[in-house]
Amino acid sequence: MSSLDASFYFIEDENVPMHVGSVLVFDGPAPSYGDVIRLFLARMDQVPRYRQKVKALPFHVGRPVWVDDDHFNILYHVRHTAVPSPGGEDQLRNLAGRIFAQKLDDSKPMWEAWLVEGLEGGRWAIISKVHHCMIDGVSGSDMLQLILDFRQESVLPEPKEWKPQPQPSTLDLVVDGVRDAIVTPVQHLSALPAVARNVRSFSEIVDFGKSVLGSLPATARRLATRAATSLNGPIGPHRRWVWARANLAEIKQIRTAAGGTVNDVILAAITRGFRDLLEKRGELTEGMVVRTMVPVSMRKADQHNELNNRVSAVLVNLPVGEADPVKRLASIRAQMDDLKSSRQAAGADVLTNLSNFAAPTLMALGSRTAMRFPQQILQTVTTNVPGPRIPLYMLGRPLVEMFPYVPVASTIRITVGIFSYLDRFTFGINADFDGVPDVQLLADGIRAGFDEMVALAAEAAERTV
Asked: Are 212 and 338 within one domain?
């Protein structure tokens, strides 16, 4: 495992299951359970990791390693259930929330897929969950290649015979782990000359340093701004999971009137959602912000088939204390422009990679301690995973919608995941069950945020006629 993958594995506990997930909704009729099993088996060779489990070393003298599961059984991982017909969105969300709240068994390959029947209109769904130590959001979207096709008619190959590789002994793993703890930092240090050769000029290094240093005052101001720390708190074992929707046409309409990127507009709508939540709780004050971590993919085009994490992150203040939606969008746009120009995502990636120099035992202890330390710097995580703009199918049935699930951790009780598919955006809002009983206010507020900005964009367009 890489250091980042290992940190996701180490921080998990009974109240903080660290898997990502999704709900895929299809038009009917539902396929048979046997056909779904055969589909997974036919595609399993594309992702060997799905037949591997985690083996941790004694005293964490080395990072956890992946080994083949001698007793791999596809029937354990691909499951079959139904909601009382005709099941509506509430029934599907409640079922998914219960499934997502359950910790994956780390004695087996850390993934599950559930075939769900009984949805109204003859629809059906796939609920999937995969541990974060296996994938990040972008490579996670690649996992959908297991079950999704670009063509409605496709021929499944015959499953190939699979034999697990013998597992190394604990002694061999300990020896390898100790060697890795010594050799890996040396390898990273020895790579520095090659990195230096790839830098075009000394002026590039100077420019990068200037941009980072120049951004420090703005970063300090962002961190000093009063945040809605009432959103932070301890996390229990249960989850509430709700969703919201938007479409590309209305986002384009907003961008035409007010500027900014698609992501800027999305963050502005999420800001309205948090504003409504805090206002209904009586906790909203002028100038208040909700500070969010926005993961940024550092994955290159040729790395999309690699099953590991290639992510960095930036911190953005969502200006919930601002009543004017135009000013909220302008604030977010200014922050994102500053973060891009200062290359802070690249700088954060460098800091993340510094954990490659830490001894695995210290990394395990540090990861767990950091996640248990009561922090109030961040209130949420918002992650946007772009999906395909063309129709997808599973066993000939068209995919209608897909909704993301992003885990909560530490004292962060709410996360927001965003998927794009065709010309639609879907929001999966995950929240601690006891700490955020009113999470539907956030989902409704996100939708209200888009409606509000669309109305203002329409007014602006009328004034220019």
From this structure: yes
